[in-house]
Amino acid sequence: MKFLASILCLASSALALPAPSGADATLVQRQTTGQITDQYLYSITLPTFTSRRNARDPATLNWDSNGCTSSPDNPFGFPFLPACHRHDFGYRNYKDQNRFTDAGKLKVDNQFKTDSVRGVCEALAEVYYAAVRAFGGDTQSKRADDLVKEYEEKVAIYDKLVAEAQENGELWRVD
């Protein structure tokens, strides 16, 4: 008898619970690493990215970076390092996710240019952008001579602008 009373008590309690309906009935799907990578590359601000990078959040993504490789991280005090960190994040995770194609590389490189132009000398950002296009990460196609030529043109423009600014006393000399 006690057993039957216990069963009836549990059954009535279970029936009293609210049943999921509508939006509550669907499970919230987690983002894939590819979706998180794209969100961090293209949808959040560079300072927010830097905070997440410093926290290694989430740990499942590749946060390794070599900074700006052999280019200066902060030429003339312009902070390129955060843009270089996000650029490395894009390259490494796109490679890990088998998405590092010519189109994927171009998209990551374009974001690097956008990040670099914010708050820094646009001519120098153009040099860095041309450098990653010409020399950054291997894809299916070999480096195009026209990209190397574009890089050399951007360096020449930048050098001319720096020399003019130094002659006018607007920029210090680092020699």
From TrEMBL:
This is Prokaryotic phospholipase A2-domain-containing protein. It holds the Pfam family Phospholip_A2_3. One of its GO terms (biological process) is arachidonate secretion. Keywords: Signal. It comes from the Eukaryota. Residues 1-16 form the signal peptide. One of its GO terms (molecular function) is phospholipase A2 activity. Coiled coil: none annotated.
